[in-house]
Design a protein that fits this description.
35% helix, 20% strand, binds zinc ion
Length: 304
């Protein structure tokens, strides 16, 4: 363990990815395998295999951090809220520690995203970073001084199932959400949320990517959908700024590829931020799809 090699594992619903980072953050190795479908024991064994194989190749032991959707309940130690349903209700920390014969650190995939970007990505040098994932779902993570803020209940940064703030009459009660409520931020700001909004206005089905491309090409309905999206994102992030007042907000997930957001949203959010000026920056992630697995490795701030 003296070498300072960190292993990060991104435990997703369809793939498991492992990365090995040297003490200075260099990528020594990365590999991706399919996630055994809804088979908890097979997932544990697959991860143990990956770690064993990686350590044999590197010729040394390493720390292990794991990022996964969902969060571990402080009350029970059991995972909840994962889209890999077979992981829910399982004591995954204890089971992975038994399978890997060492202490492991586990955090939410949004926390890992925020940590990776804060450590050596778009939030480098910032003290307080809010990482917002705008993908098929909406999640968030908070890093302060290089450390993930887990929170008393293990849910810090989880803003996706708050209601869209300053909702207009037309936005109430809002789309039904899988969580059981209606009008959650996720139902507006996820990729599917943008697609639903566009469909509701036009009765045409376009993907989020097509809506963005249509707006860039001058299509008026796509442009209006993007403007509604930007205005809603500005309100949702103003809410975060009023509570957390971060130095930097880093966007991840598929919607983070829409370049216009980074100019449009900060030009709008001052209307809802309770301050005479807003110096918070809004930036695109640097590490892309690798942020989760890199952040999992950085869950051990000092390896060895
Ligand atoms: Zn919800």
């Amino acid at each position: 363990m003296g070498s300072g090699v960190r292993l990060g594992i991104d435990l997703g619903g369809t793939k498991i990815e492992i990365i090995a980072l040297a003490h200075d953050g260099r990528v020594l190795l990365r590999r991706r395998v399919a996630t055994p479908h809804e088979d908890y024991l097979a997932i544990l064994l697959r991860v143990a295999d990956l770690v064993g194989q990686t350590e044999r190749e590197l010729g040394e032991g390493a720390s292990v951090g794991i990022g996964t959707p969902g969060s571990i309940s402080r009350a029970t130690g059991l995972l909840r809220g994962s889209n890999s349903v077979c992981l829910n209700g399982k004591p995954i920390k204890a089971d992975f520690e038994a399978a890997l014969r060492r202490e492991v650190r586990i955090s939410n995939d949004a926390n890992c995203f925020a940590l990776s970007e804060a450590r050596d990505g778009a939030g480098r040098g910032a003290n307080t970073v809010f990482g917002a994932i705008l993908g098929t779902g909406v999640g968030g993570g908070i890093v302060v001084g290089g450390i993930v803020l887990d929170g008393r209940n293990g849910i810090a940064g989880e803003w996706g199932h708050n209601p869209l703030p300053w909702a207009t009459d037309g936005e109430r009660p809002g789309p039904r959400c899988f969580c059981g409520r209606a009008g959650c931020i996720e139902t507006f700001l996820s990729g599917p949320g943008l697609e639903r909004d566009y469909f509701g206005m036009t009765w045409q089905r376009l993907s989020a990517v097509e809506i963005g491309a249509g707006a860039a090409a001058g299509n008026a309905e796509c442009e209006q959908a993007m403007q509604r999206y930007e205005q809603r994102l500005a309100r949702a992030l103003a809410h975060v700024i009023n509570v957390l007042d971060p130095d930097t907000i880093v966007l991840g997930g598929g919607m983070s590829n829409v370049q216009r957001l980074y100019d449009a949203v900060p030009a709008l959010w001052a209307a809802w931020v309770f301050s005479d000026r807003v110096d918070t920056s809004l930036v695109r992630n640097v590490h892309g799809d690798s942020s989760g697995v890199r952040g999992a490795a950085w869950l051990w701030p000092v390896a060895g």
